[in-house]
């Protein structure tokens, strides 16, 4: 009897072992230095712009969901963000704003 309980206990513990985690499960510290699309997208564009500039109803027909779209609009993005017109009716983390403008000034590299 004791043995059975021990075996069951061991099995239940094994069942609770955490599955191997993918990279996306970890919280990555904000990076306001790296001038790549992936980093700028994660730390500036996604948090400040995409809720209005995505999908078919993207504000002003400016879609900011892909590198190609962002690259195409980079000059206007810089003007809008520099002047504080965008993000519209909201504020942007000053470091994220800096990162976005520096990245565009550096030619908006993809990698
Ligand atoms: C709350 C919604 C909202 C957010 C957030 C937002 N926008 Fe906009 N955006 C708009 C609207 C609405 C317009 C069109 C009207 C206007 O120019 O005010 C616009 C227009 C634009 C335009 C085109 C301007 C022109 O006249 O050609 C650009 C470029 C732009 N936004 C970039 C951005 C960027 C970059 C961010 C993030 C830093 C951002 N927007 C965040 C709503 C938003």
Small-molecule binders here are: heme C
Strand coverage percent: under 5%
State the helix count.
5
Q: Strand count, sense and closure of the main sheet?
A: none
Rounded to the nearest angstrom, the radius of gyration is 22 Å
Derived structural class: mainly alpha
How is this fold's topology laid out?
Elements: H1 2-16, H2 37-48, H3 67-72, H4 74-82, H5 94-105
The site of heme C has 19 residues, from helix 4.
Question: What report would you give on this structure?
Answer:
The protein has 111 residues and is mainly alpha-helical. The protein has one domain. It has five helices and no strands. Helix 4 (74-82) packs antiparallel against helix 5. It starts with a helix and ends in a 6-residue tail after the last helix. The structure holds heme C. The site of heme C (HEC) has 19 residues, from helix 4.
List keywords for this structure.
5 helices; binds heme C; 111 residues; single chain
Summary of the model, kept short:
This protein is mainly alpha-helical and 111 residues long.
């Amino acid at each position: 009897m004791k043995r059975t309980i021990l075996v069951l206990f061991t099995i239940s513990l094994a069942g609770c072992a955490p599955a191997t985690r993918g990279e996306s499960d970890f919280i990555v510290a904000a990076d306001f230095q790296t001038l790549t699309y992936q980093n700028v997208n994660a730390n500036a564009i996604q948090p400040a712009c995409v809720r209005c500039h995505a999908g078919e109803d993207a504000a002003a027909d400016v879609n900011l969901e892909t590198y190609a779209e962002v690259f195409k609009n980079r000059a206007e993005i810089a003007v809008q963000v520099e002047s504080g017109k965008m993000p519209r009716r909201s504020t942007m983390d000053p470091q994220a704003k800096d990162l976005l403008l520096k990245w565009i000034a550096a030619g908006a590299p993809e990698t």
